[in-house]
Design goal:
Elements (H helix, E strand, L loop, with lengths): L4 E4 L2 E4 H23 L4 H28 L14 H23 L4 H26 L3 H20 L8 H17 L5 H24 L6 H27 L15 H37 L14 H6 L7 H24 L1
Antiparallel strand pairs: 1-2
Helix pairs in contact: 1-4, 2-3, 4-5, 4-6, 5-6, 6-7, 8-9
Pfam families: zf-dskA_traR
GO molecular function: zinc ion binding
Protein name: Zinc finger DksA/TraR C4-type domain-containing protein
Length: 350
């Protein structure tokens, strides 16, 4: 087992502090990676994260000093009496969600997707802390929490994007914490804490389900027609991809490598560049088509994956693989153009 402190230079440093810092690094990485994968603007997303962290720290320190002398709630029942740290954890957790609600509305982001990302990152952070606690103080509850969170993370990674509606991961994370508290926690107030987490989880699922039920349902024949178009497009792209692979100049039979003329090599390299570019476009188009087909299967087709608003039918008829409305697609395109211009300016400056 690990000691509680190690000497770094002439100063003892807590092992848990080092583990916490490693967990925070992984927490930030998961936030960045998942946000980027889901198509969120990285800079805006970290503005949201920074606001959430700062607000949480301020509320924690403010409430910690407040609860030191103010007794708000002290029932006689042990199971309902809140532990001080648990009470602070509840409030800080709730406060950390406020920037998500504010910024998601301002930027027209899906709050359910954001809380899913938060849940996954926090899951990793708690895994670090629980494993660290077990290594320093080997107790059953710490390793049990670690294994529970590890199972949840692997389960989500295996099925995310195929089986879950956005928001479900957040609720599963909260239910996992509740399960741990009910099975292993002996602290006062764990029933109160568990009840609050269950309430938040159920409210999240209710609002997510309500949003799904309120979406406009497309006529079956219209949806079926678009699905056939997508399947046909996917087949054509698959054939085009195979043809491009066969036409790759570097893979041609009898290719002269050692004795080729300089001009022939230049033409070959140019052809390779063009072929790779076309192949990349075809692959990205296939990915977009598969996203649209998955959306049809999950009942999400026709709603913008960024803002959640219905996509215009004319846009879907002209571009059935669309998963964003025209406004969000334009915003994303403009942001990408700005980034490309910035990169070009840097290259020219160098």
């Amino acid at each position: 087992m690990l000691p509680e402190f190690i000497n770094i230079g002439f100063k003892p440093v807590s092992i848990m502090l080092l583990i916490f810092l490693m967990g925070i690094i992984c927490w930030c990485f998961i936030l960045w990676f998942e946000a980027k994968k889901d198509g969120f603007n990285s800079e805006k997303f970290f503005d949201l994260v920074f606001s959430s962290v700062i607000l949480s720290l301020l509320s924690y320190h403010g409430l910690r000093s407040l609860t030191g002398w103010l007794e708000i709630y002290h029932p006689s029942n042990f199971l309902l009496r809140p532990d001080r740290e648990m009470f602070l954890g509840i409030v800080v957790f709730l406060v950390s969600l406020l920037p998500i609600l504010v910024f998601s509305k301002k930027w027209k982001w899906s709050v359910f997707r954001i809380v899913d990302i938060y849940a996954m990152a926090t899951n990793i952070l708690l895994m670090f802390l629980s494993l660290g606690k077990f290594l320093v103080h080997p107790q059953r509850e710490y390793i049990s929490l670690f294994l529970l969170l590890l199972f949840l993370y692997l389960f989500v990674m295996r099925y995310r994007g195929y089986k879950f509606l956005s928001g479900a991961i957040f609720s599963m994370f909260l239910f996992s914490i509740v399960l741990f508290l009910l099975l292993f926690s002996g602290k006062s107030g764990y029933l109160l804490f568990s009840g609050l987490l269950v309430t938040i989880s159920m409210l999240n699922l209710y609002l997510r389900g309500k949003k799904t039920m309120n979406k406009s349902i497309m006529p079956e024949h219209f949806l079926e027609g678009l699905k056939k178009k997508l399947v046909s497009k996917e087949k054509n792209l698959e054939m085009e991809q195979q043809a491009l692979i066969k036409e790759d100049p570097y893979l041609q039979h009898g290719r002269d490598v050692d004795n080729a003329e300089v001009m022939d090599e230049v033409l070959e390299d140019t052809g390779k560049t063009v072929s790779d570019a076309r192949l990349g476009i075809v692959k990205s188009m296939k990915v977009q088509i598969r996203k649209a087909l998955a959306a049809i299967k999950l009942g999400r087709y026709g709603k913008c994956e960024v803002c959640g608003k219905p996509i215009d039918r004319a846009r879907l008829e002209a571009y059935p693989e669309a998963t964003t409305c025209i406004d969000c697609a334009t915003n994303v395109s403009q942001e990408e153009d700005v980034k490309e211009d910035e990169i070009l300016e840097k290259q020219l400056g160098e």
